[in-house]
User: Which sequence fits this backbone?
């Protein structure tokens, strides 16, 4: 008896997943259409690095910060 209930549950879940798949494809088509209307260009993926920032709110270095990142991280300062 439990096996039949499990089969029924899985069939229902499968139908729900098919509906989500249909919605996803519809939204992907809409996004593609809107991008074509805007002549949108795909942006390259951004690469992030995380690290610690140490700053002192007083003294001669008020507007400076020390950023600690791994040695292999390609971090470029946007400040001059």
Assistant:
């Amino acid at each position: 008896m439990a096996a039949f209930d499990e089969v029924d549950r899985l069939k229902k879940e499968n139908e729900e997943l098919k509906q989500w798949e249909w919605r996803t494809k519809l939204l992907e088509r809409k996004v593609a259409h809107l991008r074509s209307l805007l002549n949108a260009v795909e942006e390259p993926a951004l690469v992030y690095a995380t690290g610690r920032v140490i700053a002192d709110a007083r003294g001669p270095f008020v507007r400076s910060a020390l950023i600690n990142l791994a040695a292999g991280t390609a971090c470029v300062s946007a400040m001059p």
The mean pLDDT is 83.
